[in-house]
Amino acid sequence: MKTKASEFDKKFDSGEDVSDHLDISKARRPEQVQKRVNVDFPLWMLQSLDREARRLGVPRQAVIKFWIAERLEKSA
Q1: Are 72 and 64 contacting, i.e. CB atoms less than 8 angstroms apart?
Q2: Which residue spans within 4-51 are E strands per DSSP?
Q3: Torsion sign, CA atoms 58, 62, 63, 67
Q4: Residue 63 contacts residue 56 (beta carbons within 8 Å)
Q5: Measured in whole angstroms, how far is the alpha carbon of residue 55 from the centre of its chain?
Q6: What percent of the chain lies above the pLDDT cut of 90?
Q7: Is 64 left (phi over 0), alpha (psi -120 to 50) or beta?
Q8: What is the number of alpha carbons within 13 Å of residue 47 lying toward its C-beta?
Q9: Side-chain-facing half-sphere of 25: CA atoms under 13 Å
Q10: Phi, psi of 5 (to 5 degrees)
Q11: pTM score, two decimals?
């Protein structure tokens, strides 16, 4: 007889939607807590960021986050 865990694993591994079996009310993403910071940029930098954001079709903040994350990963 299969256990509930093995049945869950089989459904998950086969790509079935298992979200009904999960209680995500208290789920957290480690190291993903957001903290707001204020950064002053020169106008030319904002204009360049905005051009890149328009080209990619994303908000300016997404470009900034991605570029900073990319740089931090390289230096780690």
Answers
A1: no
A2: none
A3: negative
A4: yes
A5: 20
A6: 57
A7: alpha
A8: 3
A9: 3
A10: -65, -45
A11: 0.58
